[in-house]
Every structure is written in C-alpha cells, then in structure tokens.
Amino acid sequence: MIRSLYVRVTWTFLVIVVISMGIAYWMADQIFTRDLSGQFPAQLDRSIVRIEQLYAASSPKSLSIFIKQVADMQNLAIVAVGRGGEIIEAGKTSAEITQLLTPAIIENVFAGQLQMLSSEEEGETSRPSSPPALGRKAVLGESDWAFFVRPDRVPEIRSFQRNTYTILITLLVVGCILIPIAARYLVKPLKMMTEATKRIATGDFTVQLPVQRRDELGNLADSINRMTVGLSQLETMRQDFVSNVSHEIQSPLTSIGGFAEVLRSEQLTDEERDRYVGIIKQESSRLSRLSENLLKLASLDSKQHPFEPRAIRLDRQLRDVVLSCEPQWMAKRLTVELLMEETVIVADEDQLSQVWNNLLANSMKFTPDNGHIRITLSEENGCAIVRIADSGSGISPADQERVFERFYKADAARDRMKGGSGLGLSIVKKIVDIHEGLIEIESSVLAGGSKGTPSGTTIRVMLPLHSALLQAAPTASGENDVG
C-alpha cells in the first residue's frame, strides 16, 4: 500500500504541511519575541516617567494604593523599593520580579543606572512568556525609589500562543481532509493512463483517453492517444503486409506446383513441356525477385544497413544504367533520350544505382513498343534533379498517392502479368529518403475515346548535392569516378 502513488503523494503533502506549519510557528514566535523585547526598554522607561508625573499631579495619601491602581490601569507588574529597604508589590507577576532583585541591582538603580531583569538563564533566548523588567530610579515627592516594572502580559502571550496553536491545528485538520482529495484528483488520470498502456500492451490500439486538461497530464494523455492512432495504423500496415506477402508467395508457388504436376504426364508434347518449364522458371524468378526485394527493404529499414556516401558523377552513373538495360529497351524498340549536365553528388553509389535501375525498369515495363523515354539531369538550388519521363499509359491521380506503398499495384492484373511485386517503388522511396531527397510523380491517363490526349508518367527525383561533404567524401572507383 505504501508503494501506491496516491499514498506517497498524500504523505508527501502532509509532511510538507507539517514542516511548513512548524517553520511558520517558529518564525512567528521569533518575530513576536523580537518585537516584544525590542519595545520593552523605551515603553517601560516612559511608564515610570508617567508614574512620576501622575504622582506629582495627584499627591496620593497612600503610595501603596497608588502603585496598585497604576499597575491595574496600565496592566503592569511593579515593584518599588525604598532606600530603607521597604518593598511595595503590585501586579500579578510582581513576585517574580522581587525574586530577581539583589542588593547590587538595587544600589545600581539608586545610582541612576538602568537595569534589565530577566528570569532566563544565561545563554537562553528570552521567551515571550517571561518578559524582562526594567529597573529605574524614580522620585516620588521627596523620596527616591527604585522602580522595577514590566508588562503584566502573560495572559496576552498565552492567548497569542493558544490562538496560534488553534490556527495551526485547524490548518493541519483541513489539510488532512483536502490533501487526499487533491491527491486523488492528481493520481486518477495516471491510473487511467496505466490501464490504457496495459491494454495497448495486449494489442488493443483502440484506446482513447479523454483529454480535458491543459497541463502536463493532458499533454501526456494526448500523446498516448496519438501513439495509439499511430500503432493502429502500423498494425493495419503489418496485417496488410503479411497478407500481401502471403499472396505474392502463394501465387507463384501454386503455379509452380500445378505445372510441376502437369509435367508428370507422359502425354505432353515437347513444345508443351518446354512452355510449362518456362512458366515454372518464370515463377521461380518472380519468387527470387520477391525474396530479394523483401531482404532489401528489411535491410534499408534497419539502422545497421551500410551507407557509404562518396563523390560520384551522377550523369555517368545514369548513362551506365541506361547502357546496362539496352537489351530490354532495344527489344521493345524504345527510344531513350539523355539530356544531362555534368553533376557531382555525394551519395551511396550502389543504392542510387538501385534507384535508377528500378525506375528505368518500371518505365520500360509500362511503355508500349516504339515508345519514348527521356532522362534529364540538372542542378537547381543546390540539388540534383533527375526526371525520367515515359510515354506509357500513365497513372491515375488516386493511384499516384499510393504507388510508393509496399505491395501496392496501380493495376494488379497488369502488374501480375508483367511479373511485378509492388516493392520496386517502395525501395526507391526508402533509398531517396535515406539520402534526404524527394521523389514526385506527375502522370496523365489516356482518356478513353479521345485520341491524341497526352499520356505518360514523369518521375522527378531531387537529391541534395551535400557540397559540405564533397571534399571529405572519398571518390568511387572505376569509370564513375569524379574527374
């Protein structure tokens, strides 16, 4: 129970209240004592002077009665000592003053000295319950008297202490009642968040906390809500990913298994057998590419993926990629046009080569025979801009927003016929992001029945030159070296 945050908060506040009350009482006691003690000498001296003046004005018949009346009126404790040793006491605490008197003190007063009398032992701090007394010589009529006077304020001091105790105890009681309520108010949202995180840990991402506060706890609740939304989206993506991978793997496996079973038939002609073997080989290659792309994506997603930036001639790299794909675009009688400026960029050469291969393969795949592909390279605002434009059938605006998602296919049937897995552009997007670049698609779809309507797709890749890293980056080896 003591480990509960509610109990800890409650006890913490109570301890703070008790300590604060103790400090407050000590400070009030010290201030009261200082003020009371600081006012004594001057006030008591004036009191004795007023007694002299009052005596001279009234000329009372009995000094004893006069002193007692003055003590009652001014709330004083008075001890008057005559030269003959006679003592007159008046006031509730006058006996305490008498006990403090010594012949030396009395003689000093008669000699004209002021004497302060205190009941405290040497080294102790004077307490307000025992105020000091002032000894001073007074002339009453024709006689000299040693007057010892102090305020008879013990009841007032005790009243101050009693009132102070009452206030502090009241504060403590009220604090004991209100602090647990306040602690519950503070701890309740934390309990709700704890329950929410437990549900999230079990896979329930539908949790939403009510956000009614504008403090740190409200911000935390809002962060948890945003986290659950993000986790829910990730879970949906994970499920879609697993479903897509299962489908992409199951489809070629089914084909391979079916055609392998057909090949067992002895009634097949050589031509049919060769065609079925070709299909099995094609589906095997598709599985191999899918596996390779999945491994590539997993590697790019991990922080341990090797990233080796170096200064490379981007125009040379693009030209090399186009030449390496010459058999494919020549087979479709495509026209490939290159318009490139000499451009040096700091990047991972192997990763960028993957980008250009994937983009060019995509353009060649969906550009009809005798089509046209144009590749341009320029420098704009400290960035290298690569544009790959083709005369293919184009991509609809709805599909353009999702083409970089994993396993997404703008035309699933068409992609399957062409052997696509929907991972190529995802790999491109990931590599461009690693290079802090940007990739955009501009495309128009040929409108049905409207001949001559322009169509095709332009992919624009923008990569920062990283000129600050250019001097420190090593150059690539081979034909693509800078220079």
Which whole number gives the mean pLDDT?
79
How does the overall form come out from the CA principal axes? rod-shaped
Give a short account of the largest sheet.
Answer: 5 strands, antiparallel
User: What pattern of helices and strands is seen along the backbone?
Assistant: HHEEHHEEEHHHEHHEEHEEHHHEEH
Strand arrangement, major sheet: 2-1-5-4-3
| CATH homologous superfamily designation of the largest domain | Histidine kinase-like ATPase, C-terminal domain
Q: How far from one another are the termini?
A: 74 Å
Q: What is the total domain count? A: 3
Known CATH architecture of the largest domain:
2-Layer Sandwich
Q: Which value, in Å, is the CA radius of gyration?
A: 50 Å
Uncertain regions spanning at least 5 consecutive residues: 121-128, 412-417, 447-454, 467-473, 475-479
- In the CATH hierarchy, the third-tier topology of the largest domain is known as Heat Shock Protein 90
CATH class category label of the largest domain: Alpha Beta
Number of strands: 12
The DSSP helix count reads 14
Q: How much of the polypeptide forms β-strand, as a percent range?
A: 15-25%
Structural class: alpha+beta
Helix content: 55-70%
